[in-house]
Write a sequence for this structure.
């Protein structure tokens, strides 16, 4: 048995071009109209044109939208950028937007995009401060009696990295222990 033809929405069920135009002019995007109406993207565009709608660019739509939310997002992205040394790519991920949009918001918030070298310097300084703090913490625990292998296991670092951090912190290392049998000197004949 063959199923009958797929049911199509009645003419009265789909939004009229004028209704779509009113929604569009109040700030809705074409993508939002597609989602709410159930029509295809092309059909929505055709109906908007049929109603004589003047189409906006994406930046005009963004300006129409809530300006306060945009300003809040821009300020948050600028804080991430200035205080934590985030990159434009990281801002884009944080704002769930393309990289260009994140850059534009940063500039709107009064931020100045950095060069790659400037970002690397900022991150290097932050990383150096973090490693110095870790080195001092390791030194205190080592001087309290912890062994280097124990510290490495706690911090999830290699033994060599822990030794390097301890030396950077100026730690006076304990003498190495020789746990094997006593060795005697052999005379050469």
């Amino acid at each position: 048995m063959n199923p009958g033809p797929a049911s199509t929405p009645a003419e009265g069920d789909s939004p009229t071009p004028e209704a779509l135009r009113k929604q569009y002019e109040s700030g809705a995007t074409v993508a939002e109209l597609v989602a709410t109406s159930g029509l295809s993207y092309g059909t929505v565009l055709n109906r908007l044109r049929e109603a004589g709608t003047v189409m906006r660019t994406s930046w005009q739509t963004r300006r129409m939208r809530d300006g306060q939310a945009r300003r809040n997002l821009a300020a948050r992205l600028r804080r991430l950028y200035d205080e934590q040394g985030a990159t434009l790519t990281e801002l884009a991920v944080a704002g769930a937007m393309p990289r260009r949009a994140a850059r534009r918001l940063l500039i709107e918030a009064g931020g100045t995009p950095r060069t790659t070298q400037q970002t690397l310097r900022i991150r290097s300084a932050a990383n150096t401060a973090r490693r110095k703090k870790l080195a001092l913490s390791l030194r205190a625990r080592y001087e309290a009696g912890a062994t280097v292998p124990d510290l490495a296991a706690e911090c999830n670092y290699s033994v060599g990295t822990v030794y390097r951090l301890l030396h950077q912190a100026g730690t006076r290392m304990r003498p190495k222990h020789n746990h094997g049998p006593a060795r005697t000197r052999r005379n050469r004949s």
Residues 3-11 have pLDDT under 50 and may be disordered. Residues 116-143 form the longest helix (28 residues). The two ends are 106 Å apart (CA to CA).
